[in-house]
Amino acid sequence: MANSPRVLLVDDEPDLLDLMELTLVKMGLETDRASSVAEARVQLTRNHYDLCLTDMRLTDGEGLEVVALASALPLPVPVAVITAFGNAGNAVAALKAGAFDYLSKPVALDQLRALIKSALKVPGTQADDPARDLIGQSAAMQDIRARIAKLARTQAPVHIAGESGSGKELAARLIHRLGSRAEQPFIAVNCGAIPETLMESEFFGYRKGAFTGADADRNGFFQAADGGTLFLDEVADLPLSMQVKLLRVLQEKKVRKVGATAEEAIDVRIVSATHQSLASLVETGRFRQDLYYRLNVIDLLMPSLRERIEDIPEMARFLLGKLGGADVKLDRDAEKALSAYAFPGNVRELENTLERALALCDNQHIQAADLNLAPALPATHAAPGSKYPLQDYLDQMERAAILEALEQTRFNKTAAARVLGVTFRSLRYRLERLGIE
After folding, report:
1. Which fold would CATH assign to domain 305-376?
2. How far is CA 99 from the centre of its chain?
3. pTM
4. Which parts of 239-382 fold into alpha helices (H)?
């Protein structure tokens, strides 16, 4: 077993050490033991390990010290911590400190095996280049790519914030693809698109006969994502009743189908996103604080397109190739016009603009007039994205909201007006005023 993965077990309870060691040996792994932080430090400096499992409370210190020691090694070792049952605070603290995952006492062997299998696939270095997915060489995008590469090595919940159209789902997919769960499912769910009455059955599944129309057992999103990643887009749109149920699933790592009496263990990494401020929603009572802390263990803020203007020409060329315009020429004045525009709808609006220009241009040559962009702000105005002058800022926000509603309803103006909470006549007026085709 010279080439078998090697695991360091750190706990001051001999019985638990015996149980974990027996389980790991049956999986074909080599193990070493330590009963204190001091012993763990010696083992970590003398030997190379593929994984470390440590209790949170040891006779001479905290498991967080072991996490710090393992993370500071020249070849960092993934660490999973074992916490007291129901102690969510310790689990979150460990994940923020760099722990790979956590288990609750009493340790369930099926969860232990699932964690081991997932952990030992974690790559030490990434051969994949995220640059091919996240376009741009600006400092902001270089920072995002570096952060995603780090997040991919953990199992901690990640919350992605950013404006609509800034690439939150793309970032979530990259975190999944570069991590240990890459070969497992990635399930994306738009929380705002599911009727409240169907949420529980859609997320958790149901048993045959649970309600009228349930003529067969059906898995939900959690079961579909088992072993992989569940991406909760627009998580701020979850009603409070569903937030409570989601919190329990995240704490217990188990789900109960509608109409079932027993719970099923699930192994899912949660990545969430929203264009709203969860912290503000917590303050107003629209989002549970305990769920916020569960989801926002590590945060990732996607920059808006106007915060990385230098990336727009490269992004435009990439999108034109994606749209089937490999031979399309983008006029220099068109590039300048794109770079001067604020793009409240971000990359999504840029793609829509280019798609429209591709259809209108002559001889595969896009000129500035083909883009049909709103006039740029005068030089005396504040930079795009500034809150001043106030009317310009309000117009940008209104434009972004309308474009998002139109895309959400596939450009059905009647449905978009309903989403926005305005009359059809009011929406038509706003479209004309803002110059939206």
Report:
1. Helicase, Ruva Protein; domain 3 (1.10.8)
2. 18
3. 0.63
4. 240-252, 278-283, 289-295, 312-322, 332-340, 346-360, 368-371
